[in-house]
Structures are given as C-alpha cells and as structure tokens.
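Structure tokens please, single chain.
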Amino acid sequence: MASADTQFVDPANTCGGNANCHVDIQSAVIAVSLPADIRIYPGTYNELIDLDLMNGGTPGAISFQALDGAGNPAVGTVTKGWDRSSHCGQSYYRRLLRGRPDSAGAG
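Here you go.
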C-alpha cells in the first residue's frame, strides 16, 4: 500500500513549518494525491468541501485529522453531508464535508 500524501491546513498559513501548507481545506483536497491525509490546524473554516474535486476528480481514500496549536492530534468535529446544487440548469448533488477542530479539546 502506498504511503499517504500529507497536506496541512492552517488559516495563518504557517502549518508549524510543514510543507504542503494551505489556508483552506478545499485547497488541500484539490492538491492531494491518493491515498491522502489532511491535517487541520485550529481555526475557523467557513467553507463547504467538495470531495468530487479531490485527486483530479478520481475518488479514493482520504482522511482528515484535527490538530492542536502545537500540531498534535486533537479532538475535532467533522460532519459529512450533501449539497444540492445547480449546473447548466441540471440539479445534482455534491459530496461535501464540513470541518471544525474543537479548540476546547473536548468533544
């Protein structure tokens, strides 16, 4: 099995000095090669994530890990759902993901 492509997300764009740093989750999803591991630093991420855009539109294994400010795994909240959208007059559904690291560390 191939090792995971690790991408980092930090609204401050520092990612604890790690390479592959993004300021939003969607950018990390678009940038990954599968299998993928996206590690998310604390912050507010007001975005809907379209998983159909990952890996050039090819589905595969992707995981999300909330991190604390020091870059260690933390308790977080991830909610998957569906978004009904319209494109060229046609209705369709996109797979979406909403994420929020829990800054309180509980949950």
